[in-house]
Write a structure and sequence with these properties.
- The structure is a homodimer.
- By secondary structure, the first copy, chain A, is mostly helical.
- The first copy, chain A, is about 60% helix and about 10% strand.
- The radius of gyration of chain A is 16 Å and the shape is globular.
- At the A-B interface, helix 1 and helix 4 of A face helix 1 and helix 4 of B.
- Chain B binds a DNA duplex through helix 3 and strand 2.
DNA sequence: CCATGAACACGCTGTTCATCG
DNA sequence: CGATGAACAGCGTGTTCATGG
């Protein structure tokens, strides 16, 4: 919703949200697992989001009506209850992905220009 | 100095500082002018840093011993006093530029991978 | 102990206010 | 009014604490 007159770079929360959506489309995991996957994915970039940010991102996605919760008993474990997430509204997913594409491209271009200006 | 175990993207302040250094190497302007140039440069990316961030960045650069102040009477104007900035320590400039190169490349790569992962 | 989630604290950044010529 | 700078406020994010199985 909110259009920003002036923003430097994309906020971490928005970044995590689009990444979580994208992951949820492929495989249903639970919060902690998503965190592990993301940390592993971005290890070489030294980016290690903490668990709170993941949960807050997931919470917002549910609040936005994009994802839905699905409680489940963790396989192989005694009685550990975890929360899986499924896509709830594919139209909203499409819209959000489109919006974030614009934003990520903007940031990518901004950084690229800076690197060009300063180091070339 | 501070090594961060986990950072998402470069902070605006660091971004402005390296940009200001780079500009100060080419032409000596004063705070407000630097802001105008930067805004103009990044207009197409919708990035419009406010004057406070510019001044705080310049202040930090002086505190770091990288830039030096040089008060001056604005040309053509009645008695407007402005502050110009000159490079004080070229070694520190080199070091800072090198450090920021690493950081900017990191962010650029991180965003690139995300765009790749999500949209390709 | 593992996963989830809430509460709390802090740092970065934007907005507003103050000064000076 | 143009430039500089300080004070203040809000928000995003990291750290810590709490709950449940």
């Amino acid at each position: 919703m909110g259009e920003h007159k002036s923003r430097f770079l994309v906020k971490q929360r928005a970044f995590l949200k689009i990444y979580l959506i994208s992951m949820a489309e492929k495989e249903q995991l639970y919060g902690k697992k998503y965190q592990e996957v993301i940390i592993n994915k971005f290890k070489k970039y030294g980016y290690k989001p903490n668990h709170s940010e993941i949960y807050k991102s997931l919470y917002e996605l549910i609040d936005d009506g994009i994802l839905a919760r699905k409680e489940k008993v963790k396989e192989g474990m005694k009685y550990q209850k975890v929360v899986n997430y499924i896509i709830k509204d594919t139209d909203k997913v499409k819209l959000y992905k489109k919006q974030l594409k614009v934003e990520l491209d903007r940031c990518y271009g901004l950084l690229g220009q800076a690197i060009q200006d300063i180091y070339k």
